[in-house]
């Protein structure tokens, strides 16, 4: 196999020209890689091609690498089909579950030596090729999940793909990957859905009290139900184990709240809350860096053009970096409460500086 890092390595065929497939094509085209696009809908492939993600015509030469970017229900079959159609190509995929497509492709008699799974931890609330972006994967983790029979050249080709797309490579087994995403992605999605499912029948006056906390907890519940049904069922073994653990905690929580001896119940409840707080503190900082101490600074911002930009400019002018931002609109006033997350050792300095510049700080 030609060295993947050699100039002109390719061509690459992307099967599935939705958000993710189009973004792969756009990322590779930044480096001049020859990319071809295929989709069950020729119109979708044509749109992706018009955006610069590659050509929707048939490849003029056999691809060296095939990237399968189709929904989870069809992933194993599409991988097997690509391995059969392109007997000299290595095949990867960018699906969110890794054990099931590997098992499905094996059941279809595919030559698994040339298959190496992958999963970029990136996406968007939007879908389709129009939502594609050349920088979607920049700085994001991309799991590469070789199985024991995978050829070393195939693994190298997928590593090349990850580098060309600007992502950060993380290597693990297919089973370990599925356990990881069940814990950090699939379980949180299910819990968000369960919380959001309590809202449709809520009285309007209850919903009028909702704020940023509710939006934080339920945001991901707005994902495409059809897609998430496929993801959750494809990763059912790993997710089911975690849900059983949550059920144990939930039953203990219910028992604690129902216990007449409030002192005992309170101790059990506080222990669970401490465990949750400790878990939240383990989440890595941005760019996958170590956990760091951050602090919120709350600023009242008038709902007028240019005010948010002025706040950002003033924050930058005093030498403080914004790690995260959240805006909670006040329904009673033409203003929004902006929560700036900054390094804990910068919070006091920022509060004093913004107060001196005329901003209303909520402490």
Describe the structure.
This protein is α/β, with parallel strands linked by helices and 363 residues long. It folds into three domains: 12-172, NAD(P)-binding Rossmann-like Domain (Rossmann fold); 179-258, 6-phosphogluconate dehydrogenase C-terminal fold (Orthogonal Bundle), CATH 1.10.3660.10; 292-362, ACT domain (Alpha-Beta Plaits), CATH 3.30.70.260. 45% of the residues lie in helices and 16% in strands. It has 13 helices and eleven strands. The chain has helices at residues 19-29, 42-50, 75-85, 99-107, 152-164, 174-196, 204-207, 212-218, 225-234, 236-258, 262-281, 307-317, 344-356; strands spanning 12-15, 35-38, 65-68, 90-93, 117-120, 141-145, 168-171, 294-302, 324-330, 335-343, 360-362. The protein has a four-stranded parallel β-sheet, sandwiched between helices. Strands 9-10-8-11 form a four-stranded antiparallel β-sheet, with helices on one face. Strand 3 (65-68), helix 3 (75-85) and strand 4 form a beta-alpha-beta unit. Helix 3 (75-85) packs across helix 4 (99-107) and helix 6 (174-196) crosses helix 10. The protein is globular, with a radius of gyration of 24 Å. The model has no long low-confidence stretch (mean pLDDT 89).
Give short descriptive properties of this protein.
Alpha-Beta Plaits, 363 residues, four-stranded antiparallel beta sheet, four-stranded parallel beta sheet, alpha/beta, 3 domains, Rossmann fold, 6-phosphogluconate dehydrogenase C-terminal fold, 45% helix
């Amino acid at each position: 196999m030609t060295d993947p890092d050699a100039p002109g390595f390719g061509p690459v065929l992307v099967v599935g020209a939705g958000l993710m497939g189009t973004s792969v094509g756009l990322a590779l085209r930044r480096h001049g890689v020859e990319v071809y696009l295929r989709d069950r809908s020729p119109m979708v492939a044509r749109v992706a091609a018009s955006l610069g993600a590659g050509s929707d015509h048939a490849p003029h030469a056999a691809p060296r690498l095939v990237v399968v970017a189709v929904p989870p229900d069809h992933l194993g079959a599409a991988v097997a089909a690509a391995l059969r159609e392109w007997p000299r190509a290595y095949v990867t995929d960018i699906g969110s579950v890794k054990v099931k497509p590997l098992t499905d492709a094996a059941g279809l008699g595919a030559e698994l030596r040339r298959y190496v799974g992958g999963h970029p931890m990136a996406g968007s609330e939007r879908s389709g090729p129009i939502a594609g972006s050349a920088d979607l994967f920049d700085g994001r983790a991309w799991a590469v999940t070789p199985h024991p029979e995978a050829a070393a050249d195939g693994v190298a080709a997928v590593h090349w793909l990850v580098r060309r797309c600007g992502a950060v490579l993380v290597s693990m087994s297919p089973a370990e990957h599925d356990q990881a995403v069940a814990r950090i992605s699939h379980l949180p999605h299910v819990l968000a859905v369960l919380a959001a499912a309590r809202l449709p029948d809520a009285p309007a006056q209850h919903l009028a009290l909702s704020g940023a906390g509710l939006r934080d907890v339920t945001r991901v519940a707005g994902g495409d139900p059809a897609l998430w049904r496929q993801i959750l069922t494809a990763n059912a073994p790993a997710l089911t184990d975690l849900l059983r653990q949550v059920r144990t905690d939930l039953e203990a929580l219910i028992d604690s709240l129902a216990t007449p001896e409030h002192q005992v119940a309170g101790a059990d409840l506080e222990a669970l809350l401490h465990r949750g707080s400790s878990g939240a503190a383990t989440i890595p900082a941005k760019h996958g860096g170590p956990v760091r101490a951050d602090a919120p600074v709350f600023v009242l911002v008038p709902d007028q053009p240019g005010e948010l930009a002025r706040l950002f400019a003033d924050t930058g002018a005093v030498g403080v970096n914004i790690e995260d931002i959240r805006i909670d609109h006040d329904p009673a006033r033409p203003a929004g409460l902006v929560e700036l997350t900054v390094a804990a050792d910068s919070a006091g300095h920022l509060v004093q500086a913004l107060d001196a510049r005329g901003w209303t700080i909520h402490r």
